[in-house]
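Quick one, tokens below:
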């Protein structure tokens, strides 16, 4: 399909907006089509899927995967409403798997390729061929700069924006690099809120951090209970 990153029909005025205004706008645009919390459980990564299970609570751990899953879901639904065609199954599985095979929290450049190899080994029986291939593509190419990707497909642009929005957790979200107007003009104003709300709900000890993030999204009104 023809694909112009900056031409999705919706564009708010480029002025900055408050968190409350952004939330109201997402709710107005999606309404009944906001995701429900029960959707996400099927894509929750298991502890032993992580190359470093002991790091599951850290910056590239399960809370990050959960927030990326929420951002891709909301961005995808906004774009689908405008007629963009997206493989949502592939996007959800990429959110679940893209950072599983990190061996450290630096750049660890090959972690995308390792994630794709893991997906091929472990999700082959579960996913249709085309979806499997797309998850592998998203996992592989989420790491290099945009210009290095063989093609900036709509799914890759959605996925990279979702992953970028959670850079607030490392104080490194630069909105000028976001790829869709919805991300730049709307979702960037909610990224900090989802991160802060999920951190505030975090308890010491063994808690289900994936569930904590979904509950935070429900509390904010980004996800329906
Ligand atoms: Fe990554
Ligand atoms: Fe990530």
């Amino acid at each position: 399909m023809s694909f112009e990153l900056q031409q999705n029909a919706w564009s708010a005025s480029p002025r900055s907006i408050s968190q409350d205004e952004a939330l109201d706008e997402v709710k107005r645009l999606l309404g009944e089509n906001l995701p429900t919390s029960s959707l996400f459980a099927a894509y929750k990564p298991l502890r032993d899927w992580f190359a470093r299970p002991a790091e599951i609570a850290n910056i590239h751990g399960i809370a990050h995967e959960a927030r990326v899953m929420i951002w891709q879901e909301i961005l995808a639904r906004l774009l689908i409403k405008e007629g963009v065609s997206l493989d949502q199954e592939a996007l959800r599985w990429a959110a679940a798997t893209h950072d599983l095979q990190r061996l450290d929290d630096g750049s660890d450049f090959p972690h995308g390729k390792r994630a794709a190899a893991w997906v091929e080994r472990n999700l082959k029986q579960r996913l249709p061929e085309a979806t499997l291939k797309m998850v592998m593509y998203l996992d592989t190419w989420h790491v290099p700069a945009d210009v290095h990707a063989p093609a900036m497909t709509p799914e890759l642009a959605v996925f990279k924006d979702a992953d970028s929005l959670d850079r607030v957790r490392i104080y490194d979200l630069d909105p000028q690099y976001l790829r869709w107007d919805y991300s730049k003009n709307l979702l960037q104003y909610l990224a900090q809120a989802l991160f802060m709300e999920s951190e505030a709900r975090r308890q010491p000890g063994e808690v289900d951090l994936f569930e904590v993030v979904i509950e935070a999204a429900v509390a904010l009104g980004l996800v329906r209970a």
